[in-house]
């Protein structure tokens, strides 16, 4: 579900802009990078806190609609 929500958010922003993704779903650690790679988006940062909460900054690829 976090990747679907991220996809929806990325569609609403301009190319080159970023969205912050926060999730406690452990699958996001591999799913979001795989999705970004397949779509051409860039992960600018990734953090995981002591409570297992992940925080990503995803930049929408240039030229994307």
Topology, pairings included?
Blueprint: H1 2-11, E1 18-23, H2 28-39, E2 42-48, E3 54-59
Antiparallel strand pairs: 1-3, 2-3
* Whole-number total of structural domains: 1
Q: What's the alpha carbon Rg, rounded to whole Å?
A: 11 Å
Give the number of helices.
Answer: 2
- Give the fraction of residues assigned to helices: 25-40%
Order of helices and strands: HEHEE
Largest sheet: 3 strands, antiparallel
Explain briefly what this protein structure is.
Helices cover 34% and strands 29% of the residues. With 65 residues, it is α+β, with helices and mostly antiparallel strands. Strand 2 (42-48) and strand 3 (54-59) form a beta hairpin.
Would you give an account of this structure?
It is a single chain. Strands 1-3-2 form a 3-stranded antiparallel β-sheet, with helices on one face. It has a single domain, classed as 2-Layer Sandwich (Translation Initiation Factor IF3), CATH 3.30.110.40. The relative contact order is 0.29. The chain contains 2 helices and 3 strands, in the order H-E-H-E-E. The chain is elongated. Strand 2 and strand 3 form a beta hairpin. The longest helix is centred in the middle third of the chain and has 12 residues. The two termini are 22 Å apart. The protein has 65 residues and is an alpha+beta fold.
């Amino acid at each position: 579900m976090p990747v679907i929500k991220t996809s929806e958010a990325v569609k609403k922003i301009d190319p080159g802009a970023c969205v912050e993704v926060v999730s406690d779903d452990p699958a996001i650690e591999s799913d979001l990078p795989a999705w970004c790679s397949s779509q051409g988006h860039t992960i600018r940062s990734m953090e995981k806190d002591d409570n297992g909460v992940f925080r990503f900054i995803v930049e929408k690829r240039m030229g994307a609609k």
